[in-house]
Amino acid sequence: MKIREIEKYIKENNLFLNPTVKRLGKGNNSDVFWVKDGKNQYSLRTGRKGKEIKNKFINHFMVLKFLEQENIDFVPQAVELNKKENILITTYAPGKPITEIGLNKKGLDLFVRQLVRLYGLKFSRYKMFCCKNKIGPVLPETPAASFKKYGLKRFNYLKKICQDKEVIDWIIPRLKENAKYVKNIKWNEKNLIFSHGDLTGANIIKHKNKIYFIDWERAGLSNRNNYSLAYKFIHFDFFFLNWEKKMEKFAL
pTM score, two decimals? Predict the structure, then answer.
């Protein structure tokens, strides 16, 4: 959608009084716009038509509602969801992704504390929330299933773009060891926790003394023995962000 179409949609639905609209970016399946109305800022996301995108938008919206219910205050708030038009509006998280600005020790400590709070959310409460709102929880994608589905494609991409041989040499034996380990994990309800699902550096926004987790469309259930930390660093250029100190921090 173009900015003129967004402005028309806002006006026709009486969403804001005197909005200013700018395009933030374009993804594979959606466009994202920044909307300012007075002192308030919002993120408006439009998706192409289709059941898959519609379900992602619904999940994104409902997950934010669940997190608001659980008093998680480091995420955007859900404002509006138009299922017919595939339009999702949330509050806007100001700042820059940590892939651009990195994290100092204080920021890293805050990030870890927030991650602990997120993973501390009880599966039973999320399940109850889903039942109450008549939605199906997103089922966990296990490391074993992911490895079977993607193989070494992502790792081979990392090898291609990474210029630090030491990083690759560090990963290879651990990747092989973990591939054996995840096959033996019992994937049952007792081990399920709530997870963001795509918490890469681009979805971690730092603003002053705050850190926000954004883009929750893949959020859902994950195994307690999940691979979120490894995913963060391997998937998103962790070697540019002082990786040795981070690995040491998470190893403690």
Answer: 0.76
